[in-house]
Amino acid sequence: MKLVTNEKLIKRNVKIGQYTALGGLVVIGIAIYYALQFFVNPASISEKTNYVLIGVMLVGFILAQVSMYYGNRWGRKPRLDERITSALKGLTYEYTLYHYVTPVPHLLVGPAGIWVLTAFYQRGQITYEKGRWKQKASGVGYNYMRIFGQENLGRPDLEAKAEAERLRRHLEKLLPGQELPPIQALAVFTDEQADVQVSDAPIPALPLKKLKEFLRKQAKEKPMAKADIERIQAVLPKA
């Protein structure tokens, strides 16, 4: 399997995550200082100080959200792209895996087809029932992560389909007037503690450890023509 990764983007985003996390700690320190002033000497807290405290808390919240976004994607070790790459090791040289070099974060092109790999790092039991995605988990650690370190599950199907549509428009510009092979969307859950139970979901959704097996099955049942593989890979970034 060939690999194309935007290392420059990754390094930049790692730094953004680090700086926003550091900034968040500074803001927390300022908020604690003003809070202590209130308890020690309530009379010294003016209306202006209250506005400052509200502003500090707002800035802290924004920094926390930015830090969480970048930290979840680029701050963890192994990183999201590294986990996906490791899980797909062993695929033939006909495959090319793209990280952060196309309009979608993770893309695989090869005998299994064109697959947009939309990654999610939520843990616990992931289900799809009556048109709704649900995440079920328990424990103090999970509750802490939900508040401070993990984004909501949202709608994986809509997110993955939106990425697939973004890629389709990009390829149409690169290959004007040509018919494109099907572009397929997949939700992959990268956390080892994710228990994915979504047999009737609108898109394929599976844990990372089952991704390679799924793709090999697709390559056997619905292989993409070699000419189409080469045509798509020819217009995408090279290693």
State the major sheet: 6 strands, mixed
What is the H-and-E element order?
A: EHHHEEEEEHHEEEHH
Q: How far is the N terminus from the C terminus? A: 11 Å
Unreliable stretches covering 5 or more consecutive residues = none
Count of alpha and pi helical runs: 7
Q: List the strand order in the largest sheet.
A: 1-2-3-4-7-9
Mean pLDDT: 87
Give the beta-strand count.
Answer: 9
Structural class: alpha/beta
Q: Please give the radius of gyration in angstroms.
A: 22 Å
Measured as a percent range, the helix fraction is 40-55%
The fraction of residues assigned to DSSP E strands is 15-25%
Number of domains: 2
Which descriptor suits the 3D outline? elongated
Layout of helices and strands:
Elements: E1 2-5, H1 7-40, H2 47-75, H3 80-87, E2 96-99, E3 106-110, E4 113-120, E5 124-129, E6 132-136, H4 140-148, H5 156-174, E7 183-189, E8 194-197, E9 205-207, H6 211-221, H7 226-235
Parallel strand pairs: 1-2, 4-7, 5-8, 7-9
Antiparallel strand pairs: 2-3, 3-4, 5-6
Helix pairs in contact: 1-2
Describe the protein in words.
- The chain is an alpha/beta fold and 239 residues long.
- The protein folds into two domains: 2-75; 80-235, no CATH class.
- Helices cover 50% and strands 19% of the residues.
- It has seven helices and nine strands, in the order E-H-H-H-E-E-E-E-E-H-H-E-E-E-H-H.
- It has helices at 7-40, 47-75, 80-87, 140-148, 156-174, 211-221, 226-235; strands at 2-5, 96-99, 106-110, 113-120, 124-129, 132-136, 183-189, 194-197, 205-207.
- The strands form two sheets. A six-stranded mixed beta sheet has the order 1-2-3-4-7-9, with helices on both faces. Strands 6-5-8 form a three-stranded mixed beta sheet, with no helix packed on it.
- Helix 1 (7-40) packs antiparallel against helix 2.
- The chain is elongated and about 75 Å long.
- The mean pLDDT is 87.
